[in-house]
Amino acid sequence: MNYKTRTTILRVFVYIFLALLLIVTIVPIWLLMVNATRSTYEIQQGIGFWPSTHIMNNYNILLGRGLDLWRGFANSLYLSVAMTVVTVYFSLLTAYGISVYNFKGKKQFYNFIMVLVMIPMQLSIIGFFQYMSKLGLVDNYLSLILPSIANAGAVFFAKQYLDSVIIRDLIDAARIDGCNELQIFHQIMMPIAAPGAFTLGIFSFVASWNNFFNAYILINSREKYTLPMLVQTLRGDVYRTEYGSIYLGLAITVVPILIIYAIFSRYIISGIAMGAVKE
């Protein structure tokens, strides 16, 4: 067997493996969308791969149960956008300071951030709730938005990306031209780091949109519920047999994430690619 034949066989196996991964990824999402259009009786009959005609009936059932999905959608969108903007800006600003400046305790500070990345939020939720309660921020969106300023995972990602794209000669030239440090960050570093910022923003948006644990602990008013919190209420007894409505509620929560990935997926690729090469 010559080299060309072995390469062809290997390529075929790679394509087959990728096709299987695609099927494993797409089928659950497709079934979710299909079941959102089927009635409870149809779902109980078994798995179906083709859409049905009961989507409006399922939607009317949700409205009849007092589930305000569009209010939850607006709440989730507001929180996700706000948390994404805060996370991306302050993470890049912090990472820029760590990458560019030399100060006492810099290594220890960065090591501390690394430790925070490995600590799950669940371990500190009691103290965090008490802290927010003393600040009077319980049942307030600020209790979810403000902590995004200190997102350790986002700072770690931004630091790794900036280390690969920062051009120190360009920074020195800007200082000679009279730019202050914030001008250098906003006018020079932000455009250079745009692919990484988009990538970080996409990950932050998806994490914020799917955030259920923190919101469930800190938000009490039903009119402030996000979509994941509203979906959680579908597990009540009155919804137990309305599987079509449950699937429709889940499908509505997934659609915005799919749209975000479809529109901005190229920025993920370019952000990772540009961050992997140092000129």
Structure description:
The protein has 279 residues and is mostly helical. The chain has helices spanning 3-35, 40-45, 55-64, 69-100, 106-118, 125-134, 142-145, 152-165, 168-176, 181-192, 194-209, 213-218, 227-233, 243-275. The protein folds into 2 domains: 3-61; 66-275, MetI-like (MetI-like fold), CATH 1.10.3720.10. The longest helix is centred in the first third of the chain and has 33 residues, at 3-35. The chain is globular and about 70 Å long. Mean pLDDT is 82; it is low at 274-279.
Protein traits:
279 residues; 14 helices; globular
Please report the distance between the alpha carbons of the first and last residues: 41 Å
Query: What is the succession of H and E elements?
Result: HHHHHHHHHHHHHH
Any idea how many domains? 2
Number of helices: 14
In summary, what is this structure?
With 279 residues, the chain is mainly α. 73% of the residues lie in helices and 0% in strands.
Topology overview:
Layout: H1 3-35, H2 40-45, H3 55-64, H4 69-100, H5 106-118, H6 125-134, H7 142-145, H8 152-165, H9 168-176, H10 181-192, H11 194-209, H12 213-218, H13 227-233, H14 243-275
Helix pairs in contact: 1-14, 3-14, 4-8, 4-11, 4-13, 5-8, 8-11, 8-14, 11-14, 13-14
